[in-house]
Design goal:
The strands form seven sheets. The chain has a four-stranded antiparallel β-sheet, with no helix packed on it. A four-stranded antiparallel β-sheet has the order 2-3-4-5, with no helix packed on it. The chain starts with 19 loop residues before the first helix and ends with a strand. The protein is mainly beta. It is built from two helices and 28 strands. The chain has helices at 20-25, 27-34; strands at residues 49-55, 61-65, 74-79, 82-87, 92-98, 106-110, 119-124, 129-134, 145-150, 159-162, 171-176, 186-191, 203-208, 216-222, 231-236, 249-254, 264-268, 277-281, 290-294, 299-305, 310-319, 325-327, 336-341, 346-352, 358-365, 371-375, 384-389, 394-399.
């Protein structure tokens, strides 16, 4: 592993070797110079240590949460038709669900049934399916019960939790990226029903009805325009598999006072081939909400500056940065970003100087990913990186050396 753009070590001493003539003329001066200590070479930044949780299968999604009752974050991933719980700190494997028809592309965690523990939510891309596994009283020994969330959205390539209707409870947002079915080319949010254990499905609200064509990817969530209501963002990759020819965009949707009504779409930038990820974030500390984004099916990580949405490159050459997370990774008070690019096969984080200028740090080579999360996995108060490796056939995490 290596970190780029590190200061080089100092070469040589503070005084050049003396010539005979200089020695005769300025012995006192040069002897004074020779007594000065060598300059201290800048210390290299500590490296992020890689840890393996699981290997053997292409893994599209992994998420952390406290499931075992010991206050240590555990990990749940889905691969090979199985949902697996890995219990920290030794990552003991427990199969929670063994059903090849429930092979997931995305996942989230939330306390669905309001019983004080975290449940797991999984999403299959096509045919579309969202379901949740209920955490039992004894999560390491008892079965986790399957419940349906929705089976009408299709092409789920983004799943995110957030309080959409501001009732103090988390809702679920999802993409319905396929140009067919009852909820084609749309974005939806789903409210947890009164009794989620017995309800046949969750309450679905389409906030971008046919307004997100071109194979939408991922979601962002936050108050963009400062009206106190959370808005949403998404992107569409376009490309040869886009039968509509309407992809290649980044956009955000402005929430109305009643979030069950259609939201207003605002497009960012121009033609953006391969657009996938977009997260609202105050990048330059001016109090306005900007966006950090990536072209996960093309090249580049970038940010859009509010209010005119001027585009700035963060790293224009990294290839297929399909995963993206935004967080304060160095605990300096501003927002950074991280990715594991499946084209470049690099794990990288992008250090923000607080003004929207970013330095790229490569943490690892030859690691591929579909999913990345910033989470404190070793309970030392700084944020580590959790990666689901599709091509690498693994689940790994990178330990932040900050603490």
């Amino acid at each position: 592993m290596k970190t780029i753009h590190q200061p080089s070590r100092s070469q040589g001493r503070s005084c050049f070797p003396w010539s005979a003539s200089i020695l005769l003329i300025s012995t006192t001066l040069c002897l004074s110079c020779s007594s000065e200590p060598d300059p201290v070479a800048p210390a290299e930044k500590p490296q992020w240590q890689k840890h393996q949780i699981h290997s053997g299968f292409p893994t599209l999604t992994a998420i952390a949460g406290e499931f075992s009752g010991d206050s240590l974050p555990d990990v749940i991933s889905n691969s090979d038709g199985k949902t697996r719980l890995f219990v920290a700190p030794d990552w003991k494997e427990i199969i929670l669900d063994d059903n090849a028809e429930r092979d997931c592309i995305h996942s989230e965690v939330m306390d669905v049934d309001d019983d004080g523990d975290l449940d797991w939510i999984g999403a299959r891309y096509q045919p579309g399916l969202i379901f949740w596994l209920e955490q039992p009283t004894n999560p390491l020994s008892e079965p986790w019960t399957y419940h349906l969330v929705d089976d009408q959205v299709d092409g789920i390539h983004g799943l995110l939790t957030g309080d959409v209707d501001l009732d103090g409870k988390l809702d679920l947002l999802a993409t319905s990226a396929q140009p067919k079915g009852p909820v084609a080319d749309s974005l939806v949010w789903l409210r947890v029903p009164e009794d989620p254990r017995s309800a046949p499905h969750w309450d679905r609200h389409v906030f971008a009805a046919g307004d997100a064509p071109g194979l939408s990817h991922y979601l962002g969530f936050g108050d963009v325009n400062g009206d106190g209501r959370p808005d949403a963002a998404s992107a569409a990759k376009g490309g040869p598999s886009d039968s509509t020819g309407l992809g290649n965009w980044f956009a955000w949707w402005e929430a109305p006072e009643d979030p069950t009504q259609p939201w207003t779409k605002h497009r960012l930038g121009g033609d953006e081939p391969g657009a996938t990820n977009i997260h609202p974030a105050d990048v330059n500390g001016d109090g306005k909400t900007d966006f950090i984004a990536s072209r996960g099916h093309a090249k580049g990580v970038l940010w859009f500056e509010a209010p005119e949405w001027k585009m700035h490159d963060i790293n224009p050459t990294i290839q297929e940065a399909h995963s993206l997370t935004v967080a304060d990774l160095d605990a300096d008070g501003d927002l950074d970003a991280a990715t594991c690019a499946f084209g470049s096969k690099q794990v990288a984080w992008f250090e923000n100087n607080g003004s929207g200028q970013f330095e790229t740090h490569i943490l690892d080579e030859n690691q591929e990913a579909y999913d990345i999360r910033a989470v404190d996995l070793d309970a030392d108060t700084d944020l580590d990186l959790l990666i689901a490796g599709r091509g690498s056939k693994n689940v790994v995490w990178y330990q932040n050396p900050l603490k």
